[in-house]
């Protein structure tokens, strides 16, 4: 089973990497870019576990290791 | 308009960050995790440009700055 996890900074948290990318895009001439936020995209291959066990497991992984719950949000999709 | 960009390592390219995350997940007890790949997730707010102009512009941004086309693939979604 494949799980796709998206980790993004919470709204209101400053994103210096995104700001740097925005400035680089402006210098390249893409001045219509108004804002850039950079996050993480994680793909996990996981052994076939029962769906009802998988959901809490993924939330736990995200909270313990894959994201910093103080400054980041996460969402995920499970693909068969 | 919001554009969501996903940058991932091409298949076959070694992902040491993913490997490290996999090992950490195993040490935390999630031994059913078989593989982890880590990529980037980028959200761009862009001024309302005509859709037919936006598509090539985003591809260009990805190839020039946001991804390394030699080792990375990208895909994107445009949200109104």
Q: What is the topological layout?
A:
The structure is a homodimer of 80-residue chains.
Chain A: E1 2-9, H1 16-27, E2 33-46, H2 51-66, E3 72-79
Antiparallel strand pairs in A: 1-2, 1-3
Please, could you describe this protein's structure?
Two copies of one chain form a homodimer. By secondary structure, chain A is of the alpha+beta class. In chain A, 35% of the residues lie in helices and 38% in strands. The first copy, chain A, is built from two helices and three strands; from the N terminus they run βαβαβ. In chain A, strands 2-1-3 form a three-stranded antiparallel β-sheet. In chain A, 29% of the residues are buried. At the A-B interface, β1, α1, β2 and α2 of A face β1, α1, β2 and α2 of B.
Quickly list its features.
homodimer, alpha+beta, Mth169, Chain: A
Please outline what is shown here:
The structure is a homodimer of 80-residue chains. Chain A is of the alpha+beta class and 80 residues long.
The share of residues in helices of chain A is 25-40%
Q: What is the strand tally of chain A?
A: 3
- What percent of residues of chain A are in strands? 35-45%
Looking at how many chains there are and whether they match, the oligomeric state comes to homodimer
Structural domain count of chain A: 1
Instruction: Indicate the low-confidence ranges of chain A by residue numbers.
Output: none
Strand order of the main beta sheet of chain A, please? Answer: 2-1-3
Question: Which pair of chains forms the biggest interface, and how many residues does each contribute?
Answer: A-B, 31 and 31 residues
